[in-house]
Each structure stands twice: as structure tokens, then as C-alpha cells.
Recover the amino acids of this structure.
């Protein structure tokens, strides 16, 4: 309806009437700008005349900031706030895998200012010279001392900080308990039942690290193995399982929501989001182990707007802001200042904060898995089989 | 470009006395031709020929340690093509089949629009054919995921007693998606060739005692073949390189060459092998399209109106 109003030409009389209404305080500024079309006009002019932009909280940042991140991973209200504070719009690109991010950065010319790599990839980015060391003095809102060292370690390579942590999580599987009556606790159950009772109703990630890693767990091998014999076993299992899968996809929420799938390899936040809407969906961490991970913020070496990149990371590391992020995406923060701001429904949620004994067997992804040609070819053979 | 060449030939046989003027004119028309062709030629050179050469060079290289390309000269990538044989066979079965199905669905539709439909409705109906293009392809495929998913058509089939049907993430869902997605691309060229059809030929066929079926098979169909060929080529070419359709409606289980390429470049970052697969795809397409055009257009050409 408001769109219809702004589309009409505003007569001089109407403009004056509205101006008086605004001055008297009987309408809001937003209404006034909308009705008279001045809001649109000044927004258009602002792009041409930087002086008209809202004043920046960070010294003189301008242009736009481009963020490359994961699906369902931020709170739009925070981006709106950042743009309001700084005048810099946030442009978001969504990615499906760390491999894909690396491929784009290797190819060059991404235009990204900030991206969100997972722990095991950072050393490779440093080795390839694709990311900048971070100047922590430009991130005053980030406090290394309140971040759990278990999650922040891999952001530092050879004593230099290249990335600051965003949040952490686990990789388990979601189960629709309306259909799945078994008490699901292990990866062995997951793979066995996929090939029998729940054939055609299970999804796995379109992602080498987790799909191969969790197949390795079936045999009790390390999640990160690159041993040829162990990988051969995992491949045999995956090829046998493939005809029984509903899909190979990292976008499994739709299938779980509409009932096409009853089990799905799943990350913490998706588990939180699914169980929030459908309480019958439970999240299981395999007893044998699996993945625990941390996602970081980093700045590519060829980032076009590094000032804005620092401003955005600093903004998102602000505890109050990050708490709003966590409430939206459902992944636990690494920063204890943020945890203390979260509602009890989140801090007591076992999907976000699993029991300590479940965490002991989990492994962080290893750098070798990212570039290992054998794992890359294995997942490709599995998918094209 | 052919327009320019024709122009030159036409200018050549002008009278002797006009020679200077004619050569000036030829010069100028050469310049005009060059000017008009240069944007497209530049595009072709930098966006097709140069990238193709780069891909060709890459295809003889080897994967760098962290992925990407490292210079080398080996045929190993080509010898390893068998590792993607399933993707090639999937694509080479499903793409032609989907093209054929699309043509079968599109022909009656185009025939109706061009010949049976009353002119006052024609424009409206033609616009309706294109309407799906107004929405993003991704959104339309998401809608099909819902329609073909277990709460969609299979749920209705269950109501009438047919149970356990699965459509989504099978080759069938990819075929349905292809027919839906490429129908407008097929309908329009066929419509154009049918619409231009000289109706007097049909009257003549009738006068000479041909039954409607016979005049359709011997007059209408051959004359509309160029449209069918164009539509089929467009559909076939787009399908051969598609990766979104199989990824969405095939759920990662129906794997096309396009999906293999996406994975090779973005996931395993084996650019040389990806380049070899891409070159092979280009070669297959070139040969198939060449043979197809020769056969279909040759056939249609032999029945041009002058000889019928």
C-alpha cells in the first residue's frame, strides 16, 4: 500500500500539508519521507553525493562491503543496523562448501571483503597467500581472552592472527522421530538403517569432509583419514548406500520439513532451526565421533574495501550484535560475553551445547582433507556413480 | 557478415564508368561491415575463442598440490575420462530423450497456436507460453520439488490407491523438469515455421485428393522441420550443459556432465581434468549438432516449396 502512495505524483499542496503534519508531530518521519517521495529521492541522491549519507561510526568508510558466507547464517537486522550506522551496504554471497570458496579465491577477482572460512582451511589460505594477517587493533570489539582457546587456535598460523572466530558447531544427523522409532545414537545405525528400513528417505551432505568423514566413522576410523585402505572402505560403504539415499544435498531442510526425508546429515544450526519448528525432529551426535568445527572471519588479500571489512568484522564481533546473530542462526558462539547474553532456552538447548561426553570423540577437520586429491576424487566417484 | 559479402558481390558488376564511385562505395561498405561485425567478433574472440584455447591448454596440465592448474604436458586427463563415464552416459541418454519429449509436447501446441487458434487469441496465448520465463528458474524448480515430492503428486496417487510412487530425485523428475523448462524454447521456433506456411499448399494438397493426415505428413510436417530442428538444437544444447536441473530435481543422484564439471572446478579443484571433460563435451556437441543439422536441414531442404 505504501508503494502505491509513493508512486503517485505529489502535488505542492499535498507536500505542504504533509510537511505541517510532520512538523506538528502527528506523523512519523518515515511516513513523511514515504508519502512525499523525499525518502526515495534522498536515497538516490545519497549514492551520488556521499555527504548526504548517514554519518559513519568508523572513520571514513565508504562504498560497499561484500561478505561471502554460508546459508541461513546471519541476522538481517544486524546488516540493516550496520548500513544505518556506517552508510555502507552489505552485499552477501552464499556458498555451499569450503572447497568452493577456495576455488573462487584461487581463481581471483572475487571482490569479497570478508569471508567465513572453517577452521581446517585457514592454514591452506595462508600457505597460498590468499588472506591478510589481521590487525587486531582495528577490531576493538573482539576480545581474544573471552574466546575459548579450543575454538580459536586455528585462526592463528605461526603466531600470526589471520582469522577471528565467529561461532562453532558439530556435524551430526537430524532424525524425524515420528517415523524413526529406533533410539538413534551412532553413525553405524545411521548408515545401516539407511540401507534397510529407511531406504529412500535419507540425505547426506554434498560435501567431501563430512560425507566421507562420517562414512569413515562407520568403521571406527578417524574422521580425517587419508589412508588409502580406509578411504577404500568408506567408498565401498558410500557406493552401497547411494541407491538408498533420497538425495545428496547440503540443502536438506526442505526435504526434512515436508517429510521426503526422515534422516539427514545435519549441522547444529539446521538442527536447531528444524527442531524449533518441528519438535519431533531430534539432533543426534554419533557416539563414534564426527566433526566439531569453528567458523572464522577473514579478509582476502585482494579485498577491495579493507577498511569496511574491518568495520564489518568488528561490528559482528560486538557481543550484543553477535548475540542477535546467534539467536537467528542457532550456532553456539565462541565468545563467553555473547553466551551470557543468550536466553536460557538457547544455553540449555542440548543441540547447541551437547553433553560433554558426546564432544570428547569429535575431531576438528584436518587441513590435509581440504587439498587431498584422493578424497576429492572419492566424493566425485560417489556422486557420479 | 553474410550480408556484407552479398553487398560486395552486388556492387562488383556495376558499369565501367562508375568504377571509382563503386570502389569508393565498396571501401565504405567494407568499413561499415567491419564496424558492424566488430562488436560480435570481439565478443567471440575474447569470450569464446580465447577461453576455449585456455581450456584446451589446461586440459593437458596437471592438478596443483592445493588444487587448480599446474603446467605439464600429458594426456592423462583424457585417458582418465572413463572415471566420469556415468555422467556422460546419463547426459547422452537423458538430454536427447528430454529433447524428443519436449518436441512431442511442443508440436501440437505450436500447431494449435499457428493454425487452429483464432487470431484474436493468438497474441495472448503466445505471451502465456513465455510467462514462466518471468520467474527465476530456481524458484520454478523449487516449486517442482514440492509438486513431485512425497506431499505432492505421489500423495494424490495414494488417494486413488497407487502407493509407493517416487518421482522426485529420479531420472523421471529430471525429464519432467526438462519438458516443462524448455517447452517455450521449443514452441516458438516451431510456431514461427508453421505460421509462415503457405496455406495454399494445403488447399492444393486437398484438391489433389490428399486426406488431412496425408497433407499433414507430406506438406505441413516437412515444411515445419526447420523449426523443429532449431527448437531441438536449442533445447539439446542447453540440456547437455545443464547442471541446475539435475542438481535440483535429481537431488544430486541424477548426475550430468554439467554437474561433473561444477564439481571438478569448484569442489575437487582439478582444473586440468575438468578442462579435459569440458573439451570432450564441446567435441561431442559439435559432432552431434553437425550431424543432426546436416540430416534434418538436408531433408527439409529437399522438400522446399519449389520442388514439392
Amino acid at each position: 500500500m505504501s508503494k502505491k502512495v509513493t508512486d503517485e505524483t505529489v502535488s505542492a499542496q499535498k507536500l505542504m500539508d504533509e510537511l505541517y503534519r510532520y512538523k506538528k508531530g502527528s506523523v512519523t518521519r518515515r511516513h513523511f519521507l514515504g508519502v512525499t517521495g523525499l525518502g526515495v529521492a534522498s536515497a538516490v541522491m545519497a549514492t551520488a553525493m556521499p555527504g548526504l549519507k548517514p554519518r559513519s561510526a568508523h572513520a571514513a568508510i565508504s562504498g560497499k562491503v561484500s561478505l561471502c558466507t554460508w546459508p541461513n547464517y546471519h541476522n538481517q537486522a544486524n546488516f540493516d543496523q550496520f548500513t544505518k550506522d556506517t552508510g555502507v551496504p552489505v552485499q552477501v554471497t552464499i556458498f555451499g562448501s569450503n572447497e568452493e570458496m577456495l576455488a573462487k579465491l584461487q581463481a581471483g577477482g572475487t571482490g569479497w571483503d570478508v569471508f567465513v572460512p572453517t577452521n581446517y582451511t585457514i592454514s591452506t589460505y595462508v600457505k597460498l597467500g590468499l588472506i591478510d594477517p589481521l590487525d587486531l587493533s582495528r577490531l576493538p570489539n573482539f576480545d581474544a581472552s573471552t574466546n575459548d582457546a579450543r575454538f580459536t587456535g586455528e585462526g592463528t598460523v605461526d603466531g600470526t592472527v589471520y582469522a577471528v572466530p565467529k561461532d562453532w558447531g558439530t556435524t551430526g544427523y537430524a532424525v524425524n522421530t515420528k517415523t524413526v522409532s529406533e533410539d538413534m545414537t551412532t553413525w553405524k545405525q545411521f548408515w545401516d538403517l539407511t540401507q534397510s528400513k529407511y531406504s529412500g528417505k535419507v540425505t547426506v551432505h554434498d560435501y567431501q569432509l563430512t560425507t566421507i568423514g562420517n562414512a569413515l566413522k562407520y568403521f571406527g576410523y578417524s574422521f580425517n583419514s587419508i589412508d588409502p585402505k580406509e578411504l577404500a572402505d568408506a567408498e565401498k560403504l558410500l557406493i552401497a548406500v547411494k541407491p538408498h539415499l533420497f538425495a545428496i544435498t547440503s540443502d536438506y531442510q526442505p526435504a526434512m520439513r515436508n517429510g521426503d526425508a526422515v534422516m539427514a546429515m545435519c549441522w547444529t544450526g539446521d538442527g536447531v532451526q528444524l527442531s524449533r519448528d518441528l519438535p519431533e525432529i531430534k539432533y543426534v551426535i554419533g557416539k563414534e565421533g564426527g566433526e566439531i568445527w569453528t567458523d572464522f572471519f577473514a579478509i582476502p588479500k585482494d579485498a577491495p574495501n579493507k577498511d569496511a571489512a574491518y568495520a564489518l568484522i568488528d561490528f559482528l564481533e560486538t557481543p550484543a550484535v553477535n548475540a542477535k546473530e546467534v539467536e537467528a542462526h542457532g550456532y553456539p558462539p565462541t565468545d563467553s560475553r555473547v553466551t551470557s547474553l543468550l536466553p536460557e532456552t538457547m544455553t540449555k538447548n542440548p543441540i547447541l551445547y551437547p553433553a560433554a561426553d558426546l564432544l570428547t570423540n569429535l575431531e576438528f577437520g584436518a587441513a590435509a582433507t581440504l587439498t587431498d586429491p584422493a578424497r576429492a576424487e572419492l566424493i566425485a566417484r560417489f556422486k557420479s556413480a | 557478415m553474410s550480408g556484407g559479402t552479398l553487398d560486395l558481390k552486388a556492387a562488383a558488376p556495376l558499369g565501367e564508368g562508375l568504377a571509382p564511385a563503386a570502389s569508393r562505395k565498396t571501401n565504405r561498405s567494407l568499413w561499415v561491415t567491419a564496424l558492424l561485425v566488430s562488436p560480435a567478433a570481439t565478443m567471440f574472440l575474447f569470450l569464446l575463442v580465447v577461453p576455449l584455447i585456455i581450456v584446451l591448454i589446461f586440459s593437458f596440465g596437471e592438478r596443483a598440490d592445493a588444487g587448480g592448474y599446474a603446467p605439464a604436458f600429458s594426456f592423462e586427463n583424457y585417458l582418465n575420462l572413463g572415471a566420469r563415464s556415468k555422467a556422460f552416459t546419463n547426459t547422452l541418454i537423458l538430454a536427447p530423450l528430454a529433447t524428443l519429449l519436449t518436441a512431442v509436447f511442443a508440436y501440437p501446441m505450436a500447431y494449435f497456436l499457428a493454425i487452429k487458434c483464432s487470431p484474436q487469441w493468438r497474441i495472448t496465448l503466445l505471451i502465456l507460453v513465455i510467462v514462466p520465463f518471468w520467474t527465476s528458474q530456481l524458484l520454478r524448480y523449487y516449486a517442482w520439488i514440492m509438486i513431485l515430492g512425497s506431499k505432492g503428486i505421489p500423495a494424490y496417487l495414494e488417494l486413488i490407491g497407487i502407493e509407493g510412487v517416487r518421482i522426485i530425485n529420479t531420472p523421471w523428475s529430471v525429464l519432467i523438469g526438462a519438458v516443462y523448462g524448455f517447452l517455450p524454447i521449443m514452441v516458438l521456433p516451431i510456431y514461427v515455421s508453421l505460421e509462415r506456411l503457405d496455406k495454399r499448399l494445403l488447399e492444393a494438397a486437398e484438391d489433389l485428393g490428399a486426406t488431412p493426415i496425408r497433407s499433414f505428413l507430406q506438406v505441413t510436417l516437412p515444411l515445419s522441420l526447420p523449426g523443429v530442428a532449431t527448437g531441438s538444437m536449442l533445447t539439446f544444447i542447453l540440456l547437455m550443459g545443464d547442471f541446475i536441473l539435475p542438481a535440483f530435481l535429481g537431488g544430486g543422484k541424477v548426475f550430468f556432465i554439467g554437474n561433473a564439471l561444477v564439481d571438478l572446478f569448484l569442489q575437487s579443484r582439478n582444473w586440468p581434468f575438468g578442462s579435459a571433460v569440458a573439451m570432450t563435451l564441446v567435441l561431442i556437441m559439435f559432432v552431434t549438432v553437425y550431424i543432426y543439422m546436416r540430416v534434418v536441414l538436408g531433408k527439409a531442404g529437399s522438400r522446399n516449396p519449389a520442388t514439392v
Q: What stands out?
A: Residues 176 and 279 of chain A are 9 Å apart (CA to CA). The first helix of chain A runs from residue 2 to 7. Residues 1-8, 39-57 of chain A have pLDDT under 50 and may be disordered.
